[in-house]
Amino acid sequence: MPEKLDQHARAKLLTAQRNEITEHHIYHKLSKSAKNPANRKLLEGFSQDELRHYGIWKKYTGEDVAPSSLKLWKFILIARLLGLTFSLKLMEKGEEGAQKNYGTFKVPEAAKIQKEENSHESKLLDLIDEQKLRYVGSIVLGLNDALVELTGTLAGLTFAFQNSQLISLAGLITGIAAALSMGASEYLSTKSEEATSGGGQKDGLRKSAKKASIYTTFTYTLTVIFLILPFFALKDYYIALAWTVINAVIVIFIYTYYISVAKSLPFKRRFFEMIGISLGIAALTFIIGMLVRIFLGINI
Predict the structure, then answer these.
(1) 239 falls in which pLDDT band (50, 70, 90)?
(2) 130 CB contacts (<8 Å, ≥6 apart)?
(3) Burial of residue 62 (number of CB atoms within 10 Å: 0-12, 13-18, 19+)
(4) Average pLDDT over residues 27-38
(5) Can you tell me the mean pLDDT for 283-292?
(6) How many other β-carbons are positioned within 10 Å of the β-carbon of residue 68?
(7) Distance from CA of residue 295 to its chain's centroid?
(8) Where does the pLDDT of residue 159 fall: very low under 50, low under 70, confident under 90, or very high at 90 and above?
(9) Which of 66, 216, 252, 279 is the most buried (most CB within 10 A)?
(10) What average pLDDT does the segment 142-166 reach?
(11) Into which CATH architecture does domain 7-127 fall?
(12) What pLDDT shows up at residue 57?
């Protein structure tokens, strides 16, 4: 018979029990919608692990616990919108603190359960194949180039033109042309890699030149529109430039957070590195625009 727990220990076990049954349902539901057979098998295995852990905690609490509906549908929705890997890694990241507490549970099985929980994240990183992550290089290319080139271009045009309509028009034409150019370059680059590697990876993991090009072009174009919006909306070009800089920081934050979670990479260093490059080039280009206007004596 399991030993009798005090009220505090029982409350901690009930919380752990609720987490386990919730994650059991999350993994089970996601396994049903997984297209990749390996992913499906991996997720169903995790689901069964969580159910077994739930049963162990129940043995000590003697009570059934319902899953958290909010947490369940939250991670299902995130998986649909932002990808399976991101959703599960975010969930595991959120449970790190709870798993560390397992070592304080005065039950014999706690250490084993904690070890199994810790192994889930490494298995997710190694085994889950997802299109969004396979094409992350193409997304990075589109995003980085759009942030660096267009933020710099808009900064330079702001001082050179000093007219929101002209800046937005010139920025949009430049941005769309650059997006198409980057997409074409990514297509040719990926094609070249395929030829060099002789097909390289298995069909299921091979990077398609067409998809890589689409990801790069789409990401670049979306970033261009978001950065230029303030110039369409505001007449004061300096305020518009300030909002463009804020938009650039927002894009960098969201993207860096996504990648840091999905690929288990450090967030702060990558975030400030991208901020430094993008805003540094924007400041330099602003100065170039100012010098061009002064020395060439052009007034528009």
Answers:
(1) very high
(2) 39, 83, 84, 85
(3) exposed
(4) 84
(5) 76
(6) 16
(7) 44
(8) confident
(9) 216
(10) 80
(11) Up-down Bundle (1.20)
(12) 82
Under 8 Å between Cβ of 190 and 207: yes
Spatial contact of 117 and 99, defined as CB atoms under 8 Å apart: yes
Structure letter (DSSP) for residue 150 = I
In 3-state terms, what secondary structure has residue 233?
Answer: helix
- Dump pLDDT digits (tens) for 133-148: 667 667 776 777 777 7
Residue entry with tokens 């018979």 = 1
The average confidence (pLDDT) of the chain is 79
Instruction: Classify the C-alpha dihedral 257-261-267-270 as positive or negative.
Output: negative
For every residue of 62-89, DSSP letters joined together read: -------HHHHHHHHHHHHHH-HHHHHH
CA dihedral 247, 253, 259, 265 (to 10 degrees): 150
Provide the residue type at 8 as one letter.
Answer: H
Instruction: Classify the C-alpha dihedral 66-71-77-83 as positive or negative.
Output: negative
Name the 3-class secondary structure at 132.
helix
Q: What size, in residues, is the chain?
A: 300
Q: Tokens representing 14?
A: 């009930």
The dihedral of CA 144, 145, 149, 154: what is its sign?
Answer: negative
